[in-house]
Amino acid sequence: MTYTYVSFTFQEKPQKYSPKIQQKDAQKTKAKLIPKTFRDSIKYLTKDEWQTFKENIDSFRDKVIITLLYSSGVRVAELSLMKIEHVDFANGFIRIPKDNTKTKESRTVRIGKEVLSDLKAVLRLEKRKKGYLFRSRQGGKLTTRRIEQILHRYGEKAGIQKVYAYDKKNRPLYTLSPHTLRHTHIVHALLDKVPITAVQKQVGHKRLTTTQIYADLAPEQVKEAYDKAEFE
Fold it and tell me: Which of 71, 56, 6, 87 is nearest to 160 (CA)?
């Protein structure tokens, strides 16, 4: 068998980059250098950012999904697997079976009165009393990927969605994700003086030391304490 080889000669030209491309490349390189520690991976919204984010949600059901993530501090996989039967509407709790948790330990989480009322309204509109709490158009559970997409869209609309790093496959990591709302719940709860042991139980941290990391992330808490003491 005879192979024919064809050679081509190319004249190398100097590459020209626009200022915008150079800026993007610089940002990308800088983002890649961010240390991948647990502390560095924690992204949360300030209270003003959370308010801005909520104001840009134009779907009632999406608002309930997003507010429930924030109010409960649950993981997105836990939310995806929630069923109507798990909700204690009378007392404002949601039971999370152990098979649905990362730690394989069941827990009961508290949800706020407003989101509980909105959740009831959604179920009344959909005329449902059992099954997955949030369903896809096909009737199955709402997937974690779909929930991520919902948050991403509203994050961009609110102007708070940004790339902060890249993973090993060079895929962008965004500041706003379902886990961002979990982090935001923890930080805001600590800022509002919820006892740290209560926060630990709510979000299902096995170790208190994990929850304590978040307490160091909120400079607002330190500022508030100093302002209250009128320290100069």
Answer: 56
**Long-range residue pairs from 110-118, CB within 8 A, at least 24 positions apart, any chain:** 110/72, 110/202, 111/68, 111/71, 111/72, 112/67, 112/71, 114/67, 115/64, 115/67, 115/68, 115/71, 116/89, 116/92, 118/60, 118/63, 118/64, 118/67
The residue segments making up the domain with residue 85 are: 37-210
Residue 106 resides in a domain: yes
Predicted TM-score (pTM) of the model is: 0.78
Question: Is position 1 within any domain?
Answer: no
pLDDT digits (tens, 9 = 90+) for 82-100: 999 999 999 999 999 999 9
- Tell whether 98 is covered by a domain: yes
Q: How many domains does the chain have?
A: 1
Query: Is 58 contained in some domain?
Result: yes
From the list 189, 197, 198, the residue with the least C-alpha distance to 221 is 189
Q: What's the pLDDT tens digit per position in 187-217? A: 999 988 899 999 999 999 999 999 988 887 7
Residue 170: give its domain's CATH number.
Answer: 1.10.443.10
